[in-house]
Protein: thioredoxin-dependent peroxiredoxin
Amino acid sequence: MKAPTFSLPDQMGKVHTLSDYKGKWIVLYFYPKDNTPGCIAEACGFRDKSEELKKRNVVVLGISKDSVDSHREFAKKHVITFPLLSDESKETIKAYDAWGIKTVLGKGFEGVLRKTYIIGPDGTIKKEYQHVNVLNHAEEVLRDIDLLSVS
Structure:
């Protein structure tokens, strides 16, 4: 399936589009909120694996509905060196089916679902993760990219 296109600003205000990364592997991950424990663990996991990912021609892009300013503070505080894209309109989040009902402490509410997509160099979705363990997700993605690269 072809990955939905997007045009979103990062934590520095620079606009990124899907076509900017043609020919590269993309890890596109959606996360609920800056500076929350799970989101910190997930972002830092990708940060810590950034050199290994770069060696494999992989770009990591995080997306949430938080503002550019919120992303800037989050990235600075946790030394996140990859783009964190702001989708305040939720248009891209919804296009990737990452908006829905979440349940916390027995209460349901709408929000950003923690999901990740691996997009191949040809712009097609190669893998979708609907259930993410933030503590080992970067390692899991790295293994899967290695498997996808040889197939």
Notes: The first helix runs from residue 37 to 48.
